[in-house]
Amino acid sequence: MPDYVQLSDEEIKQTLQSMPEWEYRDGWIRRLYKTPGWSHTLMLANTIGYLADAAYHHPDLALGYAQVIVKLQTHRVKGITQLDIALAKRIDEIVLWKPGEDSPFDGYPKTWVH
Ligand SMILES: C[C@H](O)[C@H](O)[C@H]1CNC2=NC(N)=NC(=O)C2=N1
């Protein structure tokens, strides 16, 4: 069952302490990802879009040549709920994944999305 309880400014501040790349402003949480260029910007946008549709909770996206800005809000409360936090964490987890040192994969040879 969705949790539409709006988090207080203090709760949001507390929560974002462990998500330092995310900023709370004007009733939205937002993060900027830097990408290697336009094609990765589009791949990133699609990956976020896919996750968002699986969750049925959709961010606003602003695309640039080498960046994607993600904004999340729970519309029915015009504020932040656990849904926004959960999706933000899931997006970070998936799109920032890279093979580790012990992995057999080489990984992308240049700077990845960050
Ligand atoms: C009708 C539909 O369930 C709502 O519009 C959903 C869809 N996606 C959504 N996405 C986000 N980010 N917040 C919402 O409140 C929201 N609501």
Description:
With 114 residues, this protein is an alpha+beta fold. The chain has one domain (9-95): 2-Layer Sandwich (Gyrase A, domain 2), CATH 3.30.1360. It contains 3 helices and 4 strands, in the order H-E-E-H-E-E-H. The chain has helices at residues 9-16, 38-55, 82-95; strands at 23-25, 28-34, 60-64, 67-72. Strands 1-2-4-3 form a 4-stranded antiparallel beta sheet. Strand 3 and strand 4 form a beta hairpin. Helix 2 (38-55) packs across helix 3. It starts with 8 loop residues before the first helix and ends in a 19-residue tail after the last helix.
Keywords:
114 residues, alpha+beta, four-stranded antiparallel beta sheet, 18% strand, binds the ligand C[C@H](O)[C@H](O)[C@H]1CNC2=NC(N)=NC(=O)C2=N1, lyase, Pterin_deHydtase, 4a-hydroxytetrahydrobiopterin dehydratase
Helix content: 25-40%
Fourth CATH level, the homologous superfamily: Transcriptional coactivator/pterin dehydratase
The termini sit apart by 32 Å
- For the CA atoms, what is the radius of gyration? 15 Å
CATH architecture: 2-Layer Sandwich
In total, how many domains does the architecture comprise?
Answer: 1
Family: Belongs to the pterin-4-alpha-carbinolamine dehydratase family.
EC number: 4.2.1.96
GO molecular function, one term: 4-alpha-hydroxytetrahydrobiopterin dehydratase activity
Keywords: Lyase
